[in-house]
Design goal:
122 residues; alpha+beta; GMP Synthetase, Chain A, domain 3; three-stranded mixed sheet; elongated
């Protein structure tokens, strides 16, 4: 099975949305932000954009609020750049997947270092 239409549209919207986010001038939105996934509904009316923020000292809630306040601008720009009959309404959500993955990696590293310490004691 190949990609269906909504998957192709999601990828195109993701690419263009990433370009648009680089142009935003809102001080609440950090420079180091990445779009991890875009889910477009089958009727193309709504798109949920999952973002990941890489700056640890940044106010994540304010950044998501800033992104959601710029959703209208993002929608207009997507309408200009991507030829669709309907341009979806955007909502931005924080993607916790990278944070959870880093936490799991830290736990594995800690267990691994303790395991190496126990082997040296024998």
């Amino acid at each position: 099975m190949g990609f269906d239409r909504t998957d192709r549209i999601s990828e195109e919207v993701k690419r263009e949305c990433a370009n648009i986010l680089r142009e935003l001038k809102d001080p609440r939105i950090p420079e180091f932000i990445s779009i991890t996934r875009v889910d477009v509904t089958r009727d193309l009316k709504y798109a949920k954009v999952y973002v990941s923020i890489f700056q640890k000292d940044w106010d994540v809630d304010a950044a998501v609020k800033g992104l959601n306040s710029s959703a209208g601008y993002v929608r207009r720009e997507i309408a200009k750049r991507v030829k669709l009959r309907y341009t979806p309404e955007f909502s931005f959500t924080l993607d916790e997947g990278i944070k959870i993955g880093a936490h799991i990696n830290d736990i594995i590293s800690e267990i691994s270092s303790k395991d190496r310490g126990n082997k040296n004691d024998l």
